[in-house]
Amino acid sequence: MAVKRRPRSTGSSGLGLGVAMFLPAVLYVLLLVAVPFGMAFFYAFSDARIGSGGEHFVGFENFSSVLENPTFRKALGNSFIFTISSQILVLIGSTALALALKDKFRGRGFVRFVILLPWVAPISLGAIGWKWILDSIYSVINWVLIALHIVKPFDKPMWLGQPVLAMISVIVVHTWRLMPFSTVILLAGLTAVPRDIPEAAAVDGAGFWRTLFEITLPMLRPILNVAMLFGIIFTFTDMIVVYVLTAGGPYDSTQVLPSLAFFTGIQGSDLAAGAAISLFLVPLLVVVAVLMLRMAHRAEVT
Amino acid sequence: MARRRGRDRARLARVGRWFVILSCMTFLGFPFYWMLITIFKQNADLYETENNPFIFNAAPTLENLRQLFYDTGFVRWLGNTALVGVLVVAITLILALPAAYSLARLTGRWGERLGILLFLTYLVPPTLLFIPLSRVVAILGFQDSIWSLVIVYPSFTIPFSIWLLMGFFKSIPRELEDAAMVDGLTRFGAFIKLVVPMSTSGILTVVIFTFTLVTQEFVYALTFISPESHQMLGVGVPTFLILGDVYFWGSLMGGCLIASVPIALVYNLFLDRFIAGFTVGAVK
């Protein structure tokens, strides 16, 4: 049998084939992500409306009218309040939960299934579940509070009907939604922390809190960053929770940038203003993208 | 003395751990438990504020489920979602499999960079793209048709799938392909006949996650489609099971739970791979 030449793994033909194999996918994604992304900028500087053709360039008109709108300013502030406060709650909750779930025990699989539900279930449907729990008349939380004589039946809280309570509700539902995701990512990170280091610290007499803050958490830093960056993206760009729970109300007190973009651009037919509002998401997205690239680069180097 | 303190501390740790686990489980799981209870309650029981909501004050009923399946578009939405899911999975696999192989094997360091760039498109949210895309969909004539979703959804399922599959392909030993090529297969032949069949579990992971992403999507479905009969589950249930101010809570909760639990069960099986896709090398 003749000895055949071992094929080179990356020849020039290999590269040609490589390009032919990835080009369709890359073009598809670019066509549906990069092109509309560019169009969003174009619309934001135009007077595009649903049902009318022939846009005109209007310069910064949309931006200046958007910036003067008090609802927009409220939404901009809310976006940050919702993102930051739910991220703080998520990080505390998921770190505690991941540490509690670190070791194997009977029933761990079931616990994992239950705590994952909020993340896996379609968010619009989970939010509907909360809408029922927080209902103005039939709220189970209120029933318990009344039964415990904490609130009076004729003076019960309207969880989604009072501005401050509605904001708290939205934050809690975001936390509920993101905690499972953050927990499983941290769990993956914890399995990578060598077991003997915290144990050695415990033997040396370091207490639980000291081991946690001086050893475990610093070692978890990279993975905490991953969980946090994704969490920020998912909360900051989400309109579903607000749309389903409060539709931005009462009196726009829970409006966020994405929901306002929807109500203005799609329901209000003002594509241009909607596009201008949604563009205010971009700076934060760029910051997160840069941080992620840096992390990926570091992982590549080490 | 020291040993006793150690035992006390161990007990304290155990109590603390279970306290955290049980309170988190209550917080995270309660809405689903509440859906389950609500589904089987009679309206007279649900809408009486004096009743203890934790127990059945009237006999359990299947009426809410009957209503959900026979009097609403629920079955139709299930069908739409399944159809869109299958088509999006097909498009995703056809485009992502070769692309992932190419970026993992044929394009070297440059491919790795391109892979990271593709992953970053995952950060561009639907809430930024839905306004221009609604125009595109209208121009293409796909408004109010599930085809609009079939075309748009792969734009976020493909990048994530490429990312997952790249890692998978890299773990297949190069020597296997080299050997197959020595035996006369072309590079592409080796990919089709050897690498793809070897990657069944990677492909299965992609199928599951693509399907999950399709069921979870809300913004595009809400924007592109308005008629009830063409709707997807995630939008149909919260939109059309509410008439004005009247909420059919029993049926609503049925729709929510039925759409959520099966996905959760399958998802659990593939969780570890999914995490690997998200952690971008921060965990090795």
Q: Point out poorly predicted stretches of chain B.
A: none
Order of helices and strands of chain A: HHHHHHHHHHHHH
Helix content of chain A: over 70%
What's the overall geometry of chain A?
Answer: globular
Mean pLDDT of chain B: 84
H/I helix tally of chain B? 15
As residue ranges, the low-confidence spans of chain A are 1-12
CATH topology of the domain at 73-240 in chain B: MetI-like fold
Provide a descriptive summary of the structure in words:
The complex is a heterodimer of chains A (302) and B (284). By secondary structure, chain A is mainly alpha-helical. Chain A has one domain (28-126, 158-301): MetI-like (MetI-like fold, Orthogonal Bundle), CATH 1.10.3720.10. Chain A is built from 13 helices and no strands. The longest helix of chain A is centred in the N-terminal third of the chain and has 33 residues, at 12-44. In chain A, 44% of the residues are buried. The model of chain A is unreliable at 1-12 (pLDDT under 50). Chain B has 284 residues and is mostly helical. Chain B has a domain at 73-240: MetI-like fold. Chain B is 76% helix and 1% strand. Chain B has helices spanning 2-39, 43-46, 63-70, 74-106, 108-120, 126-140, 146-152, 154-170, 174-182, 187-198, 200-216, 219-224, 233-240, 249-269, 271-278, and strands at residues 242-243, 246-247. In chain B, strands 1-2 form a two-stranded antiparallel ribbon. In chain B, strand 1 and strand 2 (246-247) form a beta hairpin. Chain B starts with a helix and ends in a 6-residue tail after the last helix. The model of chain B has no long low-confidence stretch (mean pLDDT 84). Chains A and B meet through helix 1, helix 3, helix 4, helix 5 and helix 7 of A and helix 1, helix 4, helix 5, helix 6 and helix 8 of B.
